[in-house]
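Chain A, query sequence.
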Amino acid sequence: MVEATSISDFLAENVAPAQETKEIKFKRFKSPFKVRSLTGEDVNRLRREATKRVLNRKTHQYENETDQNEFISKVVAESVVVPDLFNEKLQRSYGVIGDPEKLLGAMLSAGEYSVLANEVTELSHLDGDMNALVDEAKN
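Chain A, predicted structure.
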């Protein structure tokens, strides 16, 4: 039998905050990276940003196609709270101006990026398919 619930159980003021944070320490950096979980709205927005309309040559119809590598890069960069990936001094030090996704790629080794991406997907409770996408994106 299903237990009766009240709508008040789902009101924002009665629900624990969805956003979580975590620190990830890499040996090469003096301070840890700090990442935050993403909301469903954040993930949907990033997926839309990584989706383009392309012409299917067989059907001559336009279809939406998501660039999974771009999507993963956007998710990881969006999750990083510390360091501030929009900081001009940080961007200049790595020679990457105005592109937080590329900045992370320049800052981190492939292994470090993989660790960071896995922590972000776990923290945001993204499904198991996301881990497969992370593995694909790093290769």
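Helices lie at 40-49, 68-79, 88-94, 100-107, 110-123, 128-138. The first helix runs from residue 40 to 49.
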